[in-house]
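Sequence, please.
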């Protein structure tokens, strides 16, 4: 089989994994990234890793290392703060396809994940990294753009892009918190917006706190002492915030997706350059990793595709990914509008959902499975590509 020559634009988590995954199939990858390796490590974020993502990392031979750098959690507390309702998801709520797992999810810091990926990339003979794009587009079989939400490549290629900003913003920081059971993550729905606590290690949590723009602005102007007091009032009684570690970053939030490039079907947007949605439920990077997996499989199986699929390659990739992406946009939108609002009439329905999740394990297991196994099911045997039919839902 002729090995392909591929350009990947952008070396964030999506582009880095894409380069490694393609290199694993012995494609020649030219990776373009203007930032230096040390600049790429600088973001202060924590990513939630789902069971589906774990399996993709296993396929790529990265999981052992990533697991060592990540923190596993064995329970997730979902709280409706307004109605004082809660439900606890534990490892016995995992579907049988994950029954060898003791943790229900993991959290990895951006810096540790990127350190690992950069190290692998720098030692890979099939990846050539460039800070400036001095290449000729005509030399490549595919050009894949993973240059993030503000993608300049998307603008250059003139892909149609539909974007709507949320009127919520978010601050994110690491904090030392006392009083929570070890290995427990939290998703707390408040009327201003959700608040997530992702455990990182030894009582250190990534705090991801959503609220209105004006409230976020006032939080950013507070002293750390005042911010900790405010956080204490928002957390379940037993959890006491002790101190903030490192910087506080703030983000705007958007739901967005791009249509494929109809002028050149071998130019493809991947990851956050192609879609974004509200970070509630920690699905962002997980969906980017599924992009990587799908696209790598499709490129690896390119010769096996019929002529029509080859001709409209990016359209086929878009269609294959669309159910997952659209369902995530709708699911996160539902979580935010249904659980984080002051619409009184919805309260009985919210109460019933929590009651059903608490009392009926079938409902709890299947709702959590959509989050962790994803709606998009793979058989996780590389090269056995079952994706053209949308397989069974649960
Ligand atoms: C507040 C918040 C919390 C989040 N929490 C989670 C979570 O818990 N779990 C989760 O899974 N996801 C989470 N996400 C989403 C996650 O951060 C993104 O999905 C992820 O960063 C997307 O990675 P990417 O590589 O596609 O894009 P980026 O990380 O934006 O990387 C893009 C790369 O492209 C490079 N680049 C830019 N322009 C060019 C150019 N012209 N040429 C070449 N390179 C270029 C950039 O330097 C960068 O390195 C969160 C997001 C936010 C905002």
């Amino acid at each position: 089989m002729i090995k392909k020559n591929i350009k990947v634009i952008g070396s964030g988590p999506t582009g880095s994994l894409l380069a490694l995954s393609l290199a694993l199939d012995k494609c020649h990858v030219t990776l373009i990234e203007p930032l230096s390796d040390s600049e790429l490590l600088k973001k202060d974020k924590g990513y939630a890793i789902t069971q589906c993502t774990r399996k993709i990392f296993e396929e790529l031979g990265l999981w052992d290392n990533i697991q060592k750098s990540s923190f596993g959690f064995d329970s997730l507390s979902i709280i409706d703060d307004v109605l004082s309702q809660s439900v606890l998801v534990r490892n016995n709520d995992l579907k049988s396809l994950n029954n060898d797992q003791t943790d229900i999810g993991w959290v990895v810091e951006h810096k540790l994940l990127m350190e690992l990926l950069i190290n692998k990339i720098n030692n890979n003979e099939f990846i050539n990294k460039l800070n400036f794009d001095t290449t000729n587009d005509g030399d490549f079989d595919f050009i894949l753009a993973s240059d993030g939400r503000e993608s300049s490549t998307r603008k250059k290629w003139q892909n149609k892009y539909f974007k709507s900003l949320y009127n919520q913003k978010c601050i994110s920081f690491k904090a030392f918190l006392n009083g929570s059971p070890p290995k427990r993550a939290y998703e707390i729905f408040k009327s201003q917006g959700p608040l997530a606590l992702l455990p990182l290690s030894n009582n250190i949590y990534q705090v991801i706190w959503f609220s209105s723009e004006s409230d976020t602005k006032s939080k950013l102007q507070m002293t750390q002492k005042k911010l900790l007091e405010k956080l204490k009032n928002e957390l379940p009684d037993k959890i006491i915030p002790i101190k903030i570690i490192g910087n506080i970053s703030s983000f705007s939030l958007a739901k967005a997706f791009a249509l494929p490039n109809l002028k050149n079907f071998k130019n493809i947007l991947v990851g956050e350059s192609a879609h974004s949605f509200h970070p509630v439920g920690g699905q962002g990077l997980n969906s980017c990793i599924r992009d990587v997996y799908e696209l790598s499989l499709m490129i690896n199986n390119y010769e096996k595709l019929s002529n029509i699929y080859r001709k409209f390659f990016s359209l086929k990739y878009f269609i294959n990914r669309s159910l997952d992406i659209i369902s995530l946009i709708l699911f996160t939108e539902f979580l935010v509008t249904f659980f984080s609002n002051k619409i009184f009439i919805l309260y009985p329905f919210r109460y019933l959902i929590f009651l059903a999740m608490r009392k009926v394990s079938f409902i709890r297991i299947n709702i959590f499975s959509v989050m962790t196994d994803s709606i998009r099911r793979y058989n996780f045997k590389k090269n056995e590509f079952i994706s053209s039919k949308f397989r069974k839902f649960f």
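The two ends are 36 Å apart (CA to CA).
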